[in-house]
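hi support,

uploading two proteins for the ticket. first:
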Amino acid sequence: MEREGYIAEPAIATAVYLARTMRKPLLVEGEAGVGKTEIAKVLARMLDTELIRLQCYEGIDVNTALYEWNYQRQLLRLRIAGADGREPVETEQMIFSRDCLLERPLLRAITRREGPPVLLIDEIDRADDGFEAFLLEILSDFQVTIPELGPIAATHVPYVVLTSNRTREVGDALRRRCFYLYVEHPSLEKEIRIIRARVPEVIGELAREVAAVMQALRARRLHKAPGVAETLDWTRALVALRQDRLDVDTVEETLGCVLKDHHDVEDLTAQDVESLLAQARSPSADA
């Protein structure tokens, strides 16, 4: 995983290895911004396969996730069947056939012919219980059932990664079908390694100072704690500004890369920034 730019502890690497080897879905939980989605992206790069992503949200339904009928094609075939004088049964077979389906992420993941893809079911906690129950057939049998066509089994069993920000509790039935991994915000040492791996052009003490400030910020009571994505965005912005160290003015001018809530920005005074920088440069920050 590190070759693909993902700095992983042994627990993460082991969970990914087992999920990959045993073809078991991997449920990854943790706060927003800790790198859960990136695990699926890295896995797809490692396997040199397609990443198919299903972004969950409140109200997501089967049509969005699995399939829709191509109504225009069905209507055209219906007109042709009428002109040809075909029997009703034959007409029905023509309009409810596989080539009249519009594949959505789940169906595409199990019917991909080129080989198994990585299926990312992102933020499953945002979907409702009914949709979660709908996923059980796919996660246990790797098949889906379309009423007009019957069950469709996977051509290749996909590698499945589900993520959850824990905005609601994911049900036990789904958990039983998955390996489980909890990801926390990175330690200071790990965050420095992530910065150097993903932004190799960073120079001087910048990587260590950025990581230390991010660690100190997350220790504050914020409306939205910054994640690893914000760390990398901020580092790239500082590199673009040709900075090799942090100072108060630069931090204040680039806070929008880090804090994404105006209350958090307003609450951070100049004295706080000075304190964060002093803390970041303290030898104890390396402890």
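and the second one:
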Amino acid sequence: MFDILIGVLEQGFIYGIMALGVYISYKILNFPDLTVDGSFPLGAAVTAVLLTAGVNPWLALVVSFIAGIGAGLITGIIHVKFKVTDLLSGILVMTALYSINYRIADKKANIPIFDSNTIFNSGIAKHFPEAISSFLVLVIVFLVALIMKFLLDWYLSTKSGFLLRATGDNKQFVTSIAKDYGTIKIIGLAISNAFVALAGSVVCQQQKLFDISMGTGTIVMGLAAVIIGLNVFKPLKFLKATTMVLGGSIIYKACVAMAFEVGFDNADIRLITAVLFLIALISNGRILKAREE
């Protein structure tokens, strides 16, 4: 049971970084961005190639983050500049990224990095006390998730972040103060996909493997984590939304782990994800209805 708990927390924090990205596009921008299914493996593909070339794994995180920015920028430009709908913009870039990721991986469907240095076995990881070696992965992913959460909190508190939040809620307000609504939306999508690609990089380093299909269903997992987190922790007014999202990711992973414990296996993961997402949607709808009444 203890090992399951540790695994849930590890996965919860890793995918929580991805969920923070989905939170920006889905909750702040009100943009159903399917690019996520392509930018997640994009971060992993970039990382796998860099690590096999001997690049510092922390630098690989940074490069993956930048690659995610590029993916989000393309989606934003297609949507804003060429007036393509949000859904189609994401689908187009997601589809293109499949081929791009395949090219980045030198036309390989997967790249194992078992012999490469990662953030979990090199650099700062070697300086942690031996006593916590069993929890090393959890400690590192917790620190990475915490840093990204605080960075996002800081950004959302800046003038640019305020305009980003206003873009999803009040488009007229943004344009009334002579700010380019479209540019802010593009910036938001770039940041969103940067977080998602970074999560893909961490997953790649933790699993020591890149797989071309590892992004499938990422958007659903992210949405489930966001909806669960914002609903479950809503009564706790002192918590920031980003903290709620991380908590939602852990709850989601805990639900998946419990499903496996009662007899489901890996082949059922998509079914489990769909059911959890449906439950989150239904619960969210009932909560909103109750508030309206």
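thanks. also noticed: The longest helix spans residues 2-28.
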